[in-house]
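Team,

Forwarding the record for the chain on the shared tracking sheet. I've put the sequence and predicted structure together so nobody has to dig through attachments.
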Amino acid sequence: MKHRRSFFRLARASKMTIRTGRHRSGSNLAAFLFAAVLLAAIPVGAQEAPAETGPAPVAVLAIVDIQRVLNDAAAAQSIRSQMESFRVEYLAEITEQENKLREDDQELARQRTILSPEAFAEREREFRLRVDAVQQRVQAISRALDARFSESMNLVRETMIPIFAELTRERDINVIVAKTQIIFASRTLDVTDEVIRRVDLALPDVAIAPPAVE
């Protein structure tokens, strides 16, 4: 019974992989994109230029809701749809193995009264090994789904970087800030819709290969 309970928990954990991956998709990304945009806006050779004197330039701000881009961009939605298909396929496999284990567990319980203690102990040991194998399979599937999701979403993240650089040049923006870092700002500063539009043009879809499960 203990093995079956732990197995069910692991099966549920694999089912949650996509959702947890989705919530993580924007974490720690704000600082990364902020730094990347600033670097992209620096002209080539700027590091060698002598330090300028005089007052600092006036900050021209833009705000981006990074999580909304990762949620609403067409490529991101395609990634989630494909990952859900993989999840359903693997869940069907695990459910089939789970049902077989349940049947074997019930049969083992019936054999307790007719097998010798030694024979029953051997059957029970074999059953536990099979449960352990399925548990390991569930964990491997969970890791593979999570890795493929992160790998695919990285393509969306990478697509944002040159778009931010374009916006800084076209609109004379010198600072782009993630919306999560803002307490209050005018809506006119928000360029999220434009970022999504350009991401959709640059990366309308992502074809994902089935996750490789070890």
